[in-house]
UniProtKB/TrEMBL annotation:
Residues annotated as domain FAD-binding PCMH-type: 45-226
Biological process annotations from GO: respiratory electron transport chain
Any Pfam family the entry gives: FAD-oxidase_C
Family that this chain belongs to: Belongs to the FAD-binding oxidoreductase/transferase type 4 family.
Species of origin: Gluconacetobacter liquefaciens (Acetobacter liquefaciens)
Keywords: FAD, Flavoprotein
Gene3D superfamilies assigned to the protein according to its UniProt record, in alphabetical order: 3.30.465.10, 3.30.70.2190, 3.30.70.2740, Uridine Diphospho-n-acetylenolpyruvylglucosamine Reductase, domain 2, Vanillyl-alcohol Oxidase, Chain A, domain 4
Top-level taxon of origin: Bacteria
Name of protein: FAD-binding oxidoreductase
PANTHER family to which the protein is assigned, alphabetical: BLL6224 PROTEIN, D-2-HYDROXYGLUTARATE DEHYDROGENASE, MITOCHONDRIAL
């Protein structure tokens, strides 16, 4: 059995001690103040919490965690509350305390020679990107929720995003971490070293742990040179196979230039252009599928436009691309990205949807889309597949919108059937049931079948060693032990 999932309810004495420690700005107990922290972004989970803690620094957090640990009270870390799998939402018991680090929001320093940033967990990803840009550098991580998502949550979930094809996931950007452990002790691993071969790389335990091992309070991240040239184009293609042929052409030309390579289905694009104000297709006709490609380089005097036009010319001649538009300004580039970034919002407006954040080897993405679309249509006639995502790294958000006219609750009641149908195909294609969103509260039931045996047992041993009482985000990641 993993660490115990039982916890004690917070007592009046504990809440009084936490209030004395954190001050009036550092704790919320009124139900109306606590409520916004108890529902996830997708409104799949509606929990309750005894309080929300908002510490102003690592020392305050460490003392607060020690008090909660001593009392046996469970803690749920929450950043910008943008989880797609309910990974930052307390359960329905009302015994949990939510811990939000939004007040710990300083960019401590940026070193232009080291190309590093030391940053606190409550800084939003967008604010971190802006700070790096102001210093003439680039934080390459980019996700749709970057205006709300906070660095601590981004690292705890090992966020991926649009630029993974070039720069990797969040994990690849982390040089050092500071973490408050479940007993209130502090792991200080804030080192700026590229090489530090001194035993276990403990920081990597916490990246992607979904808050089950401790609170990430600050980090040292690797930065990149700011691009001097950026070019983007929206391309019409017949299907995912054509999209991959286009990807191969750009990769053959110069793989170091590809900053993002995003796939969108025709059905998904139709929802965006119909349902999202200000979104319009800049091509003469609708297509079965689309690719948004962005090239970028820090090199001086690089003619990215010539590269883009050269590859597209060859793809037009080969019949791989039927139409394309190249952004002529920063405003047009952002308009192209709006078509990609508004997919989730358009699907929300279209009705209930089931989201499958999956990955397969890049070469097998077309088969995934074809087979999963067919299987889901057979499962629920009229279902609307709207896949999109990071085809350049094999991560597709295989989302499915309810049939028109169907009751949303009836559709969502079948979410596990739909997820399992897609996951079965993903497994046959040597993929993963969660590519970048994590496991959260939505998918722990999949863990034994996918990560069982020695792998899940090892995860449980790590959890038990660091959090033996199971107080850290207890409803997340791990299935109930049987």
């Amino acid at each position: 059995m993993t660490a115990s999932q039982s916890s004690a309810p917070p007592t009046a004495d504990l809440l009084a001690r936490l209030a004395a420690l954190l001050g009036p700005s550092g704790i919320l107990t009124d139900s109306s103040d606590v409520a916004p922290y108890c529902t996830d972004w997708r409104a799949l989970y509606h929990g309750r919490a005894a309080a929300v803690l908002r510490p102003a620094g690592t020392a305050e957090l460490a003392q607060a965690v020690a008090l909660c640990a001593e009392a046996g009270v469970a803690m749920v870390p929450q950043g910008g509350n943008t989880s797609m799998v309910g990974g930052a939402t307390p359960d329905e018991s009302g015994r949990d305390i939510v811990v939000c680090l939004s007040r710990m929001n300083r960019v401590r320093r940026i070193d232009p020679l080291d190309h590093t940033m030391e940053i606190e967990a409550g800084v939003t990803l967008k604010a971190a990107q802006d700070a790096a840009r102001d210093a003439g550098l680039m934080l390459p991580l980019s996700i749709s929720s970057e205006g709300s998502a906070q660095i601590g949550g981004v690292l705890a979930t090992n966020a991926g995003g649009n630029n993974t094809v070039r720069y990797g996931n969040a994990r690849e950007l982390v040089l050092g971490l500071e973490v408050v452990l479940p007993d209130g002790s502090v792991f200080n691993g804030l080192r700026r070293l590229r090489k530090d071969n001194t035993g276990y790389a403990l920081r990597q335990l916490f990246v992607g742990s979904e808050g089950t091992l401790g609170f990430i309070t600050s980090a040292i991240l690797q930065l990149q040179p700011q691009p001097r040239a950026v070019e983007a184009a929206l391309c019409a293609v017949a299907d995912a196979s054509a999209a991959l042929a286009l990807f191969a052409a750009f990769r053959d030309q110069d793989p170091a230039l590809i900053q993002a390579f995003e796939y969108m289905s025709g059905a998904g694009m139709d929802l965006v252009t119909r349902l999202v104000p200000g979104a319009s297709l800049p091509l003469a006709e609708a297509a079965p599928a689309y690719v948004l490609v962005e090239l970028a380089t820090p090199r001086r005097n690089a003619d990215l436009r010539a590269v883009l036009e050269d590859v597209l010319a060859g793809m037009f001649e080969a019949g791989t691309v039927s139409d394309a538009v190249i952004a002529e300004s920063e405003g047009q580039r952002l308009a192209l990205w709006k078509l990609r970034e508004e997919h989730a919002e358009a699907q929300r407006r279209a009705g209930a949807s089931v989201k499958n954040d999956v990955s397969v080897p890049v070469s097998r993405v077309p088969e995934l889309i074809d087979r999963a679309s067919t299987a889901c249509a057979a499962l629920i006639p009229g279902i609307r597949p709207a896949p999109f995502g990071h085809i350049g790294d094999g991560n597709i958000h295989f989302n499915l919108v309810q049939p028109e006219g169907m009751d949303p609750a009836e559709f969502l009641a079948q979410d596990h059937r739909i997820m399992d149908t897609v996951a079965a195909i993903v497994r046959e294609l040597d993929g993963s049931f969660s590519a970048e969103h994590g496991v959260g509260r939505l998918k722990p039931y999949m863990m034994p079948g996918w990560r069982g045996g020695a792998e899940l047992a090892t995860m449980r041993r790590i959890k038990n060693a660091i959090d033996p009482r199971g107080l850290m985000n207890p409803a997340t990641l791990f299935p109930p032990a049987g």
